[in-house]
Each structure stands twice: as structure tokens, then as C-alpha cells.
Design a protein that fits this description.
This is phosphoglucomutase (alpha-D-glucose-1,6-bisphosphate-dependent). The termini are far apart. 33% of the residues lie in helices and 26% in strands. The longest helix has 15 residues. The structure holds alpha-D-glucose-1-phosphate-6-vanadate and cobalt (II) ion.
């Protein structure tokens, strides 16, 4: 087929955020919108002639059509081979693994992750490089720059490909290889963890529920938990992916995964439960009667990683995003290994992992992962928890109690104010920014500020810098509050307030009670109610 060069004009606002470009699905569906971004991406990475790319997504509304558009454009731009998940499906960690396993030049992942899907909801696209990780800011900046000057894109006039059957087919001069989205990923998990021990755990009557939230992890969880590890059928809930995620938010937190939390807090709860998000990179961990905060989960996984075969040699270091609690820092300190604090977003972990400086990374937003891929990985976290429980034969509640007894507890919570008018949210942040240098020594609702700044990061591997990553306020009793605006929303602005308070002892308080002084100080400091017009956060995790 002849290559068709289509004249186009720059589209405004195609600036990738924390994790790729995210917009309302209808915006992505506008003629030329996806095409422009795709061509800008191809151009910005120096062209794709002769290259191999992985392509897949979380199956949300428009996933199937977007892949057809991208494949035609990839062929027209000279891509030699596209490796596509069967049915257009690949979880984010599975895509990252495939990029690495096959030594490709990168991949395109279609997802808006934990954001809801559907024609009136959200869609997204991001590029991962040859290391399997999200493109660093230098690359996303170059893509954005290219979107502002784009004059044409290249495509083919060909009918849609059938992506439902595995095997190879040709599209123009490009080979399209359709692969099982689950097999390679499941094999990787089997290498990392002690499947025999976890199988024994299930055989002993240990019970679990995994809520796939009608999103991409359903087929992965069924294969791994039920087929390979012998968990009874029915362990995986909501395991059939749907384009609108059953009408819900595929966000594994106590608000959007409420039924699972209720199950675990009620009579007859199973031993363990977990959930993952739209694209399979997040995880929520629950035990009978306990919710494990993602920050605590990172610390526990790091402290116990040597239970799993992949990590018996110990960890090189740990990295966490700045707003994540400092629970993991205590573990790093104890282990005598490096601890790195990065801006929000998995792309900042890539260099540290590539350089071998860290083995485990995590974010407070339910993201945990390791050097096995270059994305956070929901099922990986679940399997590491299972491996730890299989090795230690303790309940989740016991694991937590012993962890806190050993390291102390960092009480932690995040308050989100969603879809706030952008000017109001910006006014709040601007005011805080202008105040930071004068904050030390001042008291707010009884807490005295010890230090405050607008977090700036200098990557220790490549020296690149990222400024204005969030306002940190440290109080003299060891508490901390962080303020930042979300970079993944598609409506107005979302203000995130991250609250943390360390307790050397007294580990059994409800988090909101333990954090009450920090919550009061955050309000006194930032005047959140005045700025947002909200009496309370929309989502508390
Ligand atoms: C949020 C989280 C961040 C995470 C990002 C992508 O970003 O806070 O920790 O890396 O989502 O996660 P923001 O800018 O909205 O705070 V996912 O599961 O959407 O790939
Ligand atoms: Co996600």
C-alpha cells in the first residue's frame, strides 16, 4: 500500500504529565489528535525506520481503534516489527517486560491507568524506551516540542488488522507479531518467586481475594494465582476486562475498591486480599482487618525481600517518591543501603534501576516494583507479599505489628481535592511557594516548622534536574506535610495533601486520629478550605 502523507496543524496541549499524555477519550478521538501525537513521538525519538516496537494497552474504550491507527502509522514510518498483545491487550508491567525481553527500541502503552474509562471518561498514551521504562523528561519534552510544530503525519490506507489471533502478519513493509499478553510475564513471575512455597500456602487453606476491578489484570491474575499457584477458582474477582471497567474507577484504594475493603473488615474475611488498577501497575494490600498503606507496604517488602528467590542476595538500595512516607528510609538505614528520594512518577526511578543503585522502588500512590521491569507492578507486589507470608507463616496484621515494633510507625494519609478550579489550586500553590522561605520557626495549629522547600531533584546518574516538584514542610516533631498538584488528571486541578507523622511507639491508633495535629497544621498553613471551597477532601487514602 502507498504511504499517505497527511497535512496537519499543531494541536495545543499535548504535553505529557506524570505518566504520559492523558485526556478525555473524546479529545483523543478527534480526527488527527492521536495521529499528531504519534507522529510527534516518532519524530522526537529520531524516527522509527527499521525499529521494533511493542504496542498494547489496558483494553479501555478506544484502545482497539487507537492501536489500529498507531500500527498503520508505524508501518508508514518504516517500523520493521510491531509486537502487539493479543486483542491489543498488555498490562503496563507486561509491556515493560516485553520491551526488555525482546530487546526492542521501546513501546507504546495505551492507558489512563487508574482513571475511569469509556467514551466520556479518560484515555492515555505513553512511550517507554528500550530499558522498558517511561520516557524521561528530556524525551517527553522533545515530543511536546515536536507537537507544536508538526505539519504532516504519515499513514497507510489499509483495512484494520485482526488482532484476535496469535502469529505474524504483514502491514505494508512491517511485520506485526501478535503475542500472548500473559505468558512471558507469568514466566518472569515464576522465576522471581518461590511458587512452590506459595502453592503450599494455598494448599494449607490460606484464602485470598484479588480484585481485578474489571481491568487488565484479570487474565494475568487468573493464570498466575488460580492456574499456576492453585488458589481456588473464584479467588480473582471482577476478572474479565471491560472497556469501561464495569462503570467504575479502576483505582485500588479504600474509596474505589470499597467492597473489597468491607469484605476484609467484616466477619469471615479471607486471610489476604489485593487489588490492581486499570493497567495493572498499582496494588492495594489488605489483611484480615487491616489495610496496609502503600508506603508501609514498600517498607515491609524491602525489609522482607530476601524471602523471595530473586532477592536473596539483598537489595542494592531503595528509592521512593518524595511524598511517599519515610517508613522505607528506616529500613534502608537498618540494612545499610542507599535510599533515594525522587519526584512523583515512575520515570524518575529508571536511571537508578539501570545503574544498579536500587533494587526496590515505591510510591505512596499504590505503586511498588523492582529491577525486574522498569514500571511499577501490581501483581509483582502481590506475589512478593504472598512469598513473604508463605515464608514467615504470619498474618498480615502480625507482619505489620512486628514491623512497627522494630522500626516504629510512620502514620500516613493522602487527602485529594479533585476537579478544583485550576486558578484556585494554582493560587494555593503560589501562596505556599512564596511563603516557604519564611516558614521555619513559625507555628501552625501548634506545630512548629523546622524546614520547608519546593522539592527539586538532581538525578545522581545523569545529572538532569527537575524543579518545583511539591512543597515540603517538615515540623520539629518529625511530622511532615507535602502539597502538590496532580499531573494525571483530565479535569481542572487535583490538589494532593500528603500527611505523615512518626511514632516510635503507640502503633495501634487509627491513622486519622494520629494525624489530626498534622491535618490541622496543614489547613492553618495552606488555607485549603478557602482556596478549594471544599469542607473536606474528596478522596482520602
Ligand atoms: C499519580 C500518582 C503517582 C503515579 C502516577 C501514575 O500521579 O500520584 O505517584 O506515578 O499517578 O500512576 P499524579 O501526578 O496524579 O499525582 V498510574 O497507575 O496512573 O500509571
Ligand atoms: Co496504573
Amino acid at each position: 500500500p502507498a504511504i499517505r502523507t497527511v497535512p496537519t496543524q499543531p494541536v495545543e496541549g499535548q504535553k505529557p504529565g506524570t505518566s504520559g499524555l492523558r485526556k478525555k477519550t473524546r479529545v483523543f478521538m478527534q480526527p488527527g489528535y492521536l495521529e499528531n501525537f504519534t507522529q510527534a513521538l516518532f519524530d522526537a525519538i529520531g524516527g522509527v525506520q527499521g525499529r521494533t516496537l511493542v504496542v498494547g494497552g489496558d483494553g479501555r474504550f478506544f484502545n482497539d481503534r487507537a492501536i489500529q491507527i498507531i500500527l498503520r502509522m508505524a508501518a508508514a514510518n518504516g517500523v520493521a516489527r510491531a509486537i502487539v498483545g493479543q486483542g491489543g491487550i498488555l498490562s503496563t508491567p507486561a509491556a515493560s517486560h516485553l520491551i526488555r525481553l525482546r530487546g526492542t527500541d521501546g513501546g507504546i502503552i495505551l492507558s489512563a491507568s487508574h482513571n475511569p474509562g469509556g467514551e466520556d471518561e479518560d484515555f492515555g498514551m505513553k512511550f517507554n524506551g528500550p530499558n522498558g521504562g517511561p520516557a524521561p523528561e528530556s524525551v517527553t519534552d522533545a515530543i511536546f516540542a515536536r507537537t507544536t510544530e508538526l505539519a504532516e503525519y504519515r499513514t497507510l490506507d489499509t483495512p484494520d488488522l485482526d488482532l484476535s489471533a496469535r502469529g505474524e502478519t504483514a502491514l505494508g513493509g512491517m511485520t506485526v507479531e501478535i503475542v500472548d499478553p500473559v505468558a512471558d510475564y507469568a514466566a518472569l513471575m515464576e522465576r522471581l518467586f518461590d511458587f512452590a512455597a506459595i502453592r503450599d500456602l494455598f494448599a494449607s487453606g490460606f484464602s485470598m481475594r484479588f480484585d481485578a476491578m474489571h481491568a487488565v489484570t484479570g487474565p494475568y491474575a487468573r493464570e498466575i494465582l488460580e492456574n499456576r499457584l492453585g488458589a481456588p477458582a473464584g479467588t480473582v474477582l471482577n476478572g474479565t476486562p471491560s472497556p469501561d471497567f464495569g462503570g467504575g474507577h479502576p483505582d485500588p484504594n479504600p474509596v474505589w475498591a470499597r467492597p473489597l475493603v468491607d469484605l476484609m473488615m467484616g466477619e469471615g474475611a479471607p486471610d489476604f486480599a489485593a487489588a490492581s488498577d486499570g493497567d495493572g501497575d498499582r496494588n492495594m494490600i489488605l489483611g484480615r482487618g487491616v489495610y496496609v498503606t502503600p508506603s508501609d507496604s514498600l517498607a515491609v517488602l524491602a525489609a522482607n525481600a530476601t524471602c523471595a528467590p530473586a532477592y536473596t542476595g539483598g537489595l542494592a538500595g531503595i528509592a521512593r517518591s518524595m511524598p511517599t512516607s519515610r517508613a522505607a528510609d528506616r529500613v534502608a538505614d537498618r540494612l545499610g543501603i542507599g535510599m533515594y528520594e525522587t519526584p512523583t512518577g515512575w520515570k524518575f526511578f529508571g536511571n537508578l534501576l539501570d545503574a544498579g543503585r536500587v533494587t526496590i522502588c515505591g510510591e505512596e500512590s499504590a505503586g511498588t516494583g523492582s529491577d525486574h521491569v522498569r514500571e511499577k507492578d501490581g501483581l509483582w507486589a502481590v506475589l512478593l507479599w504472598l512469598n513473604i507470608l508463605a515464608a514467615r507463616r504470619l498474618s498480615v496484621a502480625e507482619v505489620m505489628a512486628r514491623h512497627w515494633a522494630e522500626f516504629g510507625r510512620n502514620y500516613y494519609s493522602r487527602h485529594d481535592y479533585e476537579a478544583v478550579a485550576a486558578d484556585r489550586a494554582n493560587a494555593l500553590m503560589d501562596r505556599l511557594r512564596s511563603m516557604t522561605e519564611f516558614l521555619p520557626g513559625q507555628s501552625f495549629a501548634g506545630l512548629t516548622v523546622e524546614a520547608a522547600d519546593d522539592f527539586a531533584y538532581a538525578d545522581p546518574v545523569d545529572g538532569s534536574t527537575s524543579a518545583r516538584q511539591g512543597i515540603r514542610v517538615m515540623f520539629d516533631d518529625g511530622s511532615r506535610v507535602v502539597f502538590r498538584l496532580s499531573g494525571t488528571g483530565t479535569e481542572g486541578a487535583t490538589l494532593r495533601v500528603y500527611l505523615e507523622r512518626f511514632a516510635a511507639d503507640r502503633h495501634d491508633l487509627p491513622a486519622d486520629q494520629a494525624l489530626a495535629p498534622v491535618i490541622a497544621a496543614a489547613e492553618a498553613l495552606a488555607l485549603i478550605r478557602d482556596h478549594t471551597g471544599r469542607a473536606a477532601p474528596d478522596v482520602t487514602t
